[in-house]
Amino acid sequence: MNKNIQAVPLSLNESTIDGNFWKKMQELVRTHIIPYQWEALNDRIPDAEPSYCMRNFRIAAGKEEGEFGGCVFQDSDFAKWIEAVAYSLSWHSDPELEKIADEAIDEVVAAQQPDGYLDTYYIINGLDKRFTNLMTDHELYCLGHLLEGAIAYYETTGKDKLLNALIKYVDLIDSVMGPEEGKIRGYPGHQEIELALVKLYHITKDEKHLKLAKYFIDERGQSPLFFDEERKKHDNFFYWKDSLFQYNYYQAGEPVRDQQYAVGHSVRALYMYAGMADVARETNDDSLMDACVRLWNDTTHKQMYVTGGVGSSYYGEAFTFDYDMPNDTVYAETCASIALAFFAQRMFNIDPKSEYTDILELCLYNGIISGMSNDGEVFVYVNPL
Fold it and tell me: What pTM, to 2 d.p., does this model score?
């Protein structure tokens, strides 16, 4: 890699958007979507299925009685909301919204355990089971999104309460996971934390944060396969046991540097590729960058729709094979286009070529905004042509 040509992204506070199209979108998010989603996170939308998100944090903190509600990754809904709040505050001061966000952060941090652990699913259902199903239960995924939200909020407001809480959680992960003897040699079943750890490293300059991100990349797919050993040790259910995916669903069928094709769950894959690019840049790892280029080419030249949609199969929300792009049964999850935009951004930062920003723009104008209605109250995963 040639560090002399690498791009340096602007911070949140160093740019403004004046064009009518995106300015209108920003205003929709600020004035309607963020307040609407806050009501949703607190189960206050009439006739809508409850989110349980903030309720779970209150239960985990001992402030309410009840059982865990929603999906195992429900905590990440708050994480994405607080990140959106941070981005909004970066271009439009809103003391009332900031006050709501600060109070929400108080509720979240109140659930944190003395050792730093913060995942409501296991706090409520039994801490003795934590870190026993990394393949399926999204603990590291939730941490990654929470950390990215905390970083964005800190960068915009200067407030570090959530960030410090998440750094403590990262310290716990670093103490129990890694290649050292006595640690869990695991990695996330749903990639995301890799991106967050590199962002954290940029703030803290603490090498252990970058080292942990690199470990999660390097350890994935190594033999003996951690997911297989974890499943057998804890008798965990393996949904893809009888599928063609097997562990490739999690991009864990082989080490990342050996992977030739985009396989498995598309969002997981593209988060991982973006994380690989981040780590490659920070560590000047040419072999990892070579893998990024190879996987970029396979994704965008052979498995991408004209809209920037990827992951053509409903089964597994996944990549399939070269040029398998049905119009009627296409899945093309919104999140996958977002993840592809992340990957494109990072590839451009390393090697500023127009092909990367062309794809980023393609995703942004098509596969991403198609996931949100013009009134900001309807959100969709699937994007048929």
Answer: 0.97
Helix ranges (H only) for the chain are: 20-28, 34-41, 53-60, 75-91, 95-110, 120-125, 139-157, 161-176, 193-204, 207-219, 226-234, 266-283, 286-302, 334-350, 354-362
What DSSP letter does each residue of 156-213 carry, written as one string? HH---HHHHHHHHHHHHHHHHBSSSTTSB----SS--HHHHHHHHHHHH--HHHHHHH
Q: How far apart are CA 29 and CA 190, in angstroms?
A: 27
DSSP 3-state of 304: strand
Locus of tokens 């049964």: 329
Reported as a pLDDT band with limits 50, 70 and 90, residue 21 is: very high
Q: What are the beta bridge partners of residue 313?
A: 318
Let me know: does 359 contact 296? Beta carbons within 8 Å.
no
- What pLDDT, in 10s, does the model give residues 229-256? 999 999 999 999 999 999 999 999 999 9
| Domain-wise residue ranges, the chain | 19-238, 255-385
> C-alpha distances in angstroms, 174 versus 16, 32, 37, 197, 213?
37, 39, 33, 11, 10
How many angstroms separate the CA atoms of 363 and 358, rounded? 9
Nearest C-alpha neighbor of 251 from the set 183, 298, 200: 298
Pick the CATH number of 255-385 from 1.50.10.20, 1.10.760.10, 3.40.50.2300, 2.102.10.10: 1.50.10.20
What is d(CA 247, CA 249) in angstroms, rounded to the nearest whole number? 5
Instruction: Report the distance separating Cα 372 and Cα 149, nearest Å.
Output: 20
Q: Please, which residues have CB within 8 angstroms of residue 323's CB and are 6 or more apart in sequence?
A: 302, 303
- Residue 289, helix vs strand vs coil: helix
| pLDDT confidence band for 15 (50 / 70 / 90) | confident
